[in-house]
Design a protein that fits this description.
The chain starts with 11 loop residues before the first strand and ends in a 32-residue tail after the last strand. It has a domain of 84 residues. It has a 5-stranded mixed beta sheet, with helices on both faces. By secondary structure, it is of the alpha/beta class. The chain has 2 helices and 5 strands.
Length: 122
Amino acid sequence: MAHRLNHDAYTVGWVCALTIELIAAQEMLDEEHDDLPPDGNDTNSYTLGSIGEHNVVIACLPAGQTGTNSAAAVAMQMKSTFRAIRFGLMVGIGGGVPSPGTDIRLGDVVVSQPAKGHGGVI
């Protein structure tokens, strides 16, 4: 652990759905930061660090919870605790994406986009 910043130093929020995705996200950090005092209303567990010049806060959905509602709850608590977040990422393995109608293979990058009343979350 390198040093401790304050909550407002973090501008990138990263939400992972699975523990294996959290481990991969943690490995992407150039530097890991010391934990900050918890907010009593926030149930998330955070990993803090930096990638290049960007201070990043990472959280994972609670074990056994999946779906957009759980992801939204984690993101909402994260944004409430880390008010300076300007960029939000939901990065995952996309295991449910391949289908006979879509040619998506291991190693492909899939980016969702909101369209026609859908939020863009796959």
